[in-house]
Each structure stands twice: as structure tokens, then as C-alpha cells.
Design a protein that fits this description.
The structure is a single chain. With 218 residues, the chain is an alpha+beta fold. 39% of the residues lie in helices and 20% in strands. It has 7 helices and 9 strands, in the order H-H-E-E-E-E-H-E-H-H-E-H-H-E-E-E. It has a 4-stranded antiparallel sheet. A 3-stranded antiparallel sheet has the order 2-3-4. The protein has a two-stranded antiparallel sheet with strand order 7-8. The radius of gyration is 18 Å and the shape is elongated. The two termini are 31 Å apart.
């Protein structure tokens, strides 16, 4: 059983219930799904630090991965090093979503999806904090973590993340032909590291430029 904290409010946000009060039946189902996933999930993570090689205003290279991205260029301004990370909570969410869907309990399947999304984000926050503590010992500050698929940082970079971090070997995550990860509740991200405290937020909606997203935190 994992002790990763999961806020009910985050699960409700993923369910699109931002700004509305959930009824008792929904809250009961949310609590049940959270409890089950916390009991069955298998959180794993891998991360490594690399030099950030700038090759232009918004072009850089990380351990052989060449990236062109305005979003990352802004995020990385002033950084000379990055951390690549990958994390997963295992197949528990996928198993329950598949089972509930097969039984025709679609609403419960959706709640499992939302609970899994909240759980993996919370796990990533814990990994992020572990990385922050290591960076702090070296006098470095973290920028917001940024995943392939955010902004103009193409999801096509996923195979390079898998290669650089040996993700399949280290934590058992594989990649489909369309660059989706399995288990589905898995995340890859890059975190800029700077000697300057830029007062950047560390993760999530606050780091994303998609302000019209249905699931964005208020």
C-alpha cells in the first residue's frame, strides 16, 4: 500500500467538477477508488541529471536529444543543467478501468481514471521534491517540470526519454507506436536547474500555458 497523499478535490477537478459541490454518492465513489488505488498501486521512479547545451534562443541539446521549443526556452532561461525524470504508479488504474467498463459501470471507470490521474500527479510531486532537495545541496533551484506534449514541446520526444533513462528497464514503462506510455498513469518530464532563484512554480497547471483547459486548477 502506498502512502502517497491524494486530495479528493483534485480527483473532482479531473472529473470536471471544478466550482461545483459533489453529491454524497460521487464523494463516496471517489473515496472508494482512491483507497483501492492506494492499496494496489506500485509507484516507481527514475531520474538523472544532465548538462543543458544551448544551441540557440529556443534550441538546446540534452544527452543527444535535440529540442526546439519556445515554451521550454522560456522555462529554461538561465539554466545550465536539467533533470530528466520518469514515474509511474503501475497498472492498477488500467486494470480497474478495463474491468468497470466491461461490467458497464462507466461512471465508476471514469472515477478510477480521475483518481489515477490525481495519484500519479501527487507521486510526481513527491519525486519533484526529492529532486529539489538534491539540487538544493548543490546550490541549484528548480524550474517547473515540463512534460512532452505540453505547449510546443512535442510528444515525439518520448522515445528519447525512454532511451536516455532506460525507462523500460528501470521502472517497467513501455511506449506505444503513438508515443503513449503503458501503464497509462505514467509521466516523463524535464526540470530546468539554475543557480538563480527565479521564484518559479514547480509543477502542474501553474507551469502550463493552456489557460482554457477544462481541468485547469483555479
Amino acid at each position: 500500500m502506498t502512502d502517497i497523499p491524494v486530495k479528493e478535490s483534485e480527483v473532482l477537478r479531473y472529473l470536471g467538477q471544478r466550482g461545483t459541490e459533489a453529491d454524497d454518492a460521487v464523494l463516496s465513489a471517489v473515496r472508494s477508488c482512491i483507497r483501492i488505488l492506494k492499496e494496489e498501486s506500485e509507484p516507481k521512479r527514475v531520474y538523472r541529471f544532465f548538462p543543458l547545451i544551448w544551441e540557440g534562443e529556443n534550441r538546446f541539446r540534452i544527452e543527444g536529444m535535440e529540442v526546439a521549443s519556445r515554451s521550454l526556452g522560456k522555462n529554461f532561461r538561465g539554466c545550465g543543467e536539467v533533470c530528466l525524470m520518469a514515474a509511474t504508479i503501475g497498472f492498477a488504474t488500467d486494470r480497474h478501468v478495463e474491468r468497470e467498463t466491461a461490467l458497464g459501470r462507466v461512471s465508476r471507470a471514469v472515477i478510477f481514471q480521475a483518481a489515477g490521474a490525481a495519484l500519479i500527479e501527487s507521486w510526481c510531486d513527491l519525486v519533484n521534491e526529492e529532486i529539489r532537495r538534491k539540487a538544493e545541496k548543490r546550490g541549484l533551484f528548480l524550474r517547473p517540470r515540463f512534460s512532452p506534449g505540453y505547449g510546443d514541446f512535442s510528444i515525439s520526444h518520448q522515445p528519447e526519454f525512454m532511451r536516455i533513462l532506460s525507462v523500460q528497464k528501470e521502472i517497467g514503462v513501455t511506449l506505444t507506436e503513438t508515443c503513449l506510455m503503458m501503464p497509462s498513469k505514467s509521466v516523463t518530464a524535464v526540470i530546468g536547474m539554475s543557480k538563480e532563484n527565479a521564484h518559479c512554480l514547480t509543477a502542474g497547471c501553474e507551469a502550463c500555458g493552456k489557460t482554457d483547459c477544462l481541468y485547469r486548477r483555479a
